[in-house]
Amino acid sequence: MLLQANLTSYAQTTAVISAIGALLLAIVNYLFGRRLEAWKNRQQHQLEDLRSEQQSALAEFQRRAQQELAQFNASLAQQERLDADRAQSRGEAYGEIWTLTGALSLFGSAKCPGASDLAARLSQWYFERGWLLTDEAKSRYFLIQEVLSFFVLHGLSFRRPADEILFGSPGRAMDELRKIRNIELGLEPRGDDGRYSVRDIQVSIAAWKSRRLTDTRDNTLPEQAWVLLQFVMSSFRTQLTDELQSHQLSPDPKTETPPPAAAPRAPKFL
After folding, report:
1. Distances (CA, A) of 133 to 52, 147, 257
2. Model pTM?
């Protein structure tokens, strides 16, 4: 009986302990679940806050990007207007200087202005419109003034070679002029579309001035001076023409449409 009572008491104690263990386990699971839920909630809130911050940052980035793009487009449009205005002004100004430098032309009037008067008119144009010249064109303009200043300093006049020399042979007048340039200026003929760099012209001018300072052929000196000045002016006009054609034939930046086929070029260095 005593053993049976002990077994019964042990079984009851074991049941109580199991119940207490189950209760403790339930409490632990409950508390863990609540803490897990709280952690999940915190993580969810942090994730939502992060998403909100990212969305705000993205919206701010897009706003700034759109603002900068609008400013860039406005600046680009303004620059295009300025370029168009500058191109128009340059075309007008180049037309004026073309007339002035055309005073010496192979097929123009044989009457030539004085070096001092021509230099003064070119200087007046330069201080009114010279800011429109590109660096390359400006370099060629100063070569003209260099030659004219040399003429004025040494009292040199210039006169177109006789018509019999330029137009009396079966060949083209331009080819005859190139032959004279080759003799007087040491310039190798380069055809109708030939180009001479600023350096080429500087070397030719320096050599010509050096020879003229010791040359006593006064009877032909005005014709030699004309050949030099006409060549320098022609190279300047050719540069102006190339620049204007380059602008007119450039693609439209808005449509990127290729330019129309260029018209045949007129012979250079006339």
Report:
1. 56, 19, 27
2. 0.61
